[in-house]
Amino acid sequence: MSVPSPRAADPTLIASLVELIRRTSTVLPDDVVRAVTAAKTGEEAGSNAAYALDVVSTNICLAKDKSQPLCQDTGSILFYIHTPVGYDQLAFAAAAETAVRQATAKGYLRQNSVDSLTGLNSGDNVGPGFPDLHFHQWDQAHVEVKLMLKGGGCENVGATYTLPNPKFGGRDLKGVENAILDCVLQAQGQGCGPGILGVGIGGDRVSGMACAKTQLLRLLDDTNAHPDLAGLEARVVQKANQSGIGPMGFGGKTTLLGCKVGALNRVPASFFVAVSYMCWAFRRQGVDLNADATIARWIY
Amino acid sequence: MAVISITTPLTEAVTRNLKVGDTVEITGRLYTGRDAAHHRLHHGEKPPVDLAGAIIYHCGPVMVKVGDRYECRGAGPTTSSREEPYQWEVMRDHGIRGVIGKGGMGPKTLEGCQKYGCVYLHAIGGSAQVYAERITRVDGVDWMDLGSPEAIWHLWVEKFPCIVTMDSHGNSLHKQVYEHSAKALEGLKA
Q: Is B43 a catalytic residue?
């Protein structure tokens, strides 16, 4: 939830957050660019799939050069913030709202926040749930801010499965794998593939999907520390890429650029598999902040 | 791949000539129209523009007002399947000849394309700048009360590239790929 705050927001923090939003919206992170580039070499010359990835590559360069959004759907605005104990979260929330308003006025964000009951667009991306702030404390002395902009097309094709299910199997990694691949099948090209999946096994309907989304904060080329999950991630990508769905659902060899899986404990009665689909325009970036709220380091 | 140049408004002869797999470049007018606009048309509201021979673009652009005019800062396609309940009706009642979007559409739309001589043109999702480059002017806007992304924007485009993925002869690339991939994944089940 967005938290209305009477606090005066720090202008330096606002400026840092506007820059974080600008860069997230306009520059694809290096790990994603590398994956897209690798996918291009795998498609047959002259195919629709190769055409789609050529357009994608051109778009990545144009967006960066022009400092304009990669995708017009600048999506849900998801901040993941780690703070030292005692940090003023209400002041951060005020700064984030102001930064979002400024970034919207500058055209880094589309006017994307719509009242679900009246259909009215707030025009400034601020409203209940906009921006979406996830605070966590940590033992480090600095503030870390990660941001994901997640478009509606890919968000719509995400799904939560419950196991056992006669179509997918029981409460084991085989059932999980089949459920994940069903999500890929149903998504086809509608989530702007080649996609990246974040998956949460277990938890409840909220925590499972939250786990799935935070998996998307991992680097695409990392390896899951849990060997069973690492194996599952590799199998899902390999099988999805044999499905023939291909970039944009045109047919082709690259359907997924990655799959990242986490697991939470569950209650005995439940076994959820939450799948969050991310489009190729995988807009996530992050910064470590200095004590004066200037940007110390870019994370991705 | 040979590129077929087409200009708006489209005639039935032009759309009937297009086949799945063709690459086209559009010059002329595109009207954006997505969820709220289709819903409104479905409820019988008169369109604010003449849609005969027109191409509807499933797109909610990023627009910034500079002085008294709008600048387009990004304009890629949005997912078309949400208009599946309405699109055939817009073909029947208003005579559109083309729809641009992404992800393809279903059997009602495919049937509408056959019956009314319309074609589905696929743009590459997430590529807002590639398409914004082909928009040379923003000539107007209607239904702004729906909010900027849902409004009907009048765009003038030059050589706007698309691939035909559903034609007026009953062919759909999306149907083919779905059937093929469902079979392939069934065979790969754990």
A: no
